[in-house]
Amino acid sequence: MSQLFRVESLHVTPVSTDDSADSGESTGASSGKEILRGLNLTVNEGEVHAIMGPNGCGKSTLASTLLASPEYEVTAGRLIYKGEDITDWSTDVRAKAGIFLAFQYPQEIAGVSVIQFLRQALSARKGLDLSVLELRLSVMDWMKRLGMDSSFVDRYLNEGFSGGEKKRNEIMQMAILEPDLAILDETDSGLDIDALRIVAQGIREVRVDRPKLGIVLITHYQRLLDELQPDFVHIMVDGRIVKSGGMELAEELEKSGYEAYR
């Protein structure tokens, strides 16, 4: 199994002095104070890695850093993707190379329909200039698999979408764009159990179509892990991964919480 992605002793600080820069995580961090403090992670092709941790441990900072958010600065360490050092690559270059981020809070884009967004994204990712009709035909199957009405693609991106619709739309984007590495930042956030199962089923189906896809799944809850059965579970505390294991680790957390790891 080939190594797909490696995080080497990653140290990250916020660029802004505004504490809210930490993507919704209340760390009390200001510019110059480290949020990630020597984090290491290796993802091989086809593996699913779940990262769990208490609020403020740096999970969302990690997701943002992996997609080169300008809010954060890598002060030490490296990101290696398919053997190349991508630490200094911009967001668009990383995305074009096949790294995908599903956001915890997907943005609304007024005036841009789902189908228009997908067409532009596919052109940027693969250089494919499909017509709206060609793309519509190609997404119909995925809309059925994700329980989405066919009119969905003509709505403005995430405008008026329910939490479940936003997350299903992200999984559809992942299916259409065919990334090699997907970072799913709290994809289960705000979903009821039925929506969660539909999203989890969508992720499983994408993996069937793309068995070499590597996934880094950031979550608070075991219920998504129960649906997806990750290969590895990592506990993140205070900007580092402090323990790694299998599903038994998630079950242990469910019973005893994070106190033993602080």
Key features?
alpha/beta, four-stranded antiparallel sheet, 34% helix, Rossmann fold
Describe this entry's structure for a reader.
The protein is α/β, with parallel strands linked by helices and 262 residues long. It has one domain: Rossmann fold (3-Layer(aba) Sandwich). A 6-stranded mixed β-sheet has the order 6-9-10-3-11-12, sandwiched between helices. The chain has a 4-stranded antiparallel β-sheet with strand order 2-1-4-5. Strands 7-8 form a two-stranded antiparallel sheet. A hairpin with a 2-residue loop joins strand 4 and strand 5. Helix 3 packs parallel to helix 5 and helix 5 packs parallel to helix 6. The longest helix has 17 residues.
**What letter string, H or E per element, gives the SSE order?**
EEEHEEHEEHHEHEHEHEEH
Strand order of the largest sheet: 6-9-10-3-11-12
Radius of gyration: 18 Å
Structural class, from helix and strand content?
alpha/beta
Total number of domains? 1
Q: How many runs of DSSP E, i.e. beta strands? A: 12
CATH class category: Alpha Beta
Number of helices: 8
Fraction of residues in helix: 25-40%
Let me know the largest β-sheet: 6 strands, mixed
Please identify which CATH superfamily we are dealing with: P-loop containing nucleotide triphosphate hydrolases
Strand content: 25-35%
* CATH architectural group: 3-Layer(aba) Sandwich
